[in-house]
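Let us begin with a simple case.
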Amino acid sequence: MTPYMRSLIDPADVRLFEEVCAFIERIPDVELSSGRDVSCHMVARIVSERFDLPVVDGRFGRAVAHSWLEFGGYILDVYPVGAMRPQMLHIKYMTTPWGDLFDEEDLAVVKTPEFETDYHEFLKKARA
């Protein structure tokens, strides 16, 4: 079944979304030597690098530190909070519950030396 939302999205943007989904599916499972988990912040950044899309750091639901991408009026959540499906595309300008859950904020967690070390290890292993 085709979701109604797909009829509202430019076909080129649907193709980009599908390319991002395929790219994420090809990323292998990565275990970090620090013992920390791969995070949405890392996944958003590797997708950003590959597709030249801006990363947005902030909060999901005003509580959870989160990172996502935005382009063309869409929120591209490549590692959604509490979801099984690893990618979701939301129309930013529509009145939906989703758009109100993403709040941009400067996050200290993505500026720590530990994050940088983990992210570079993730990049190396994900590209292997």
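The second case is a distinct protein. As before, the sequence precedes its structure tokens.
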Amino acid sequence: MSKKKMTLHQEKALELGISAALIAQAQRRGAVHADIKAFTKEDDDFLAKLSQTLGVPKLLKAQLSRIPKKKRKLPVQTAHYADLKAWEFHALALFTKGYRKGQPIGSDIVLQQLHLKYRVQNTPTIRNRLHQLRKLGRSRARKEQSIESQNVG
């Protein structure tokens, strides 16, 4: 069994104790050299200082205050979607789409599709999770419809 080889970004991130995404974002914005091989001591120091200041609550509050309230709430409202497994996300999308169209899709039909695509079995645990996702899909569709009606009116 072979280990995956790390990219230059991952190696540099490990060396500096920061995330590779931070390095990539700093490169995109021109804050550090575009070529990671050309990084200087100043680039390393800048990234280290930047990573130290990113989590400071006062600085985060100042940054967030520049973003409109509606946009600030969106990541918080959708954060739990990141933890969904692929089949759960697919089921949620199916339920939401059905409720949006006004034609709710049944759990049995969703379960059949999930079995074909993801080999999900019909167990009590899966059925309970589908029930939760169906309720979440319904509330998600209702929120979208209320937002659309607010924007229109």
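The chain has a mean pLDDT of 85. The chain has two domains: 8-64, 75-152.
Keep these points in mind for the review questions at the end of the chapter.
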